Amino acid sequence: MHVTLHVTRDCNMACSYCYAPPQSCAGMTFETARKAVDLGASTSGGRCGVVFFGGEPLLRKELIIQVIDYCRSIEKQTGVQFHFKLTTNGLLMDEAFLDFSLRNGLFIGLSFDGIKAAHDTFRRLPDGTPTHAFLIKRLELLLRVKPYSSVMLTVNPETARYLSDSIYQLKSLGCRYMIVSLNHDADWDAARFSILKKEYEILGNAYIRWTRNEDKFFFSPFETKISSHVNRHCYQNDRCELGQKQISISPEGGIFPCVQFPYAGEQSQWCIGHVDTGIDMEKQKAIFQLSQEEKKGCEGCMISDRCNHTCGCLNWQTMGDINKVSPVLCHHEQMLMRIADRVGKVLYKERNPTFLHKQYNSLYPVMSLIEDVLD
Question: The pTM is what?
Answer without folding.
Answer: 0.90
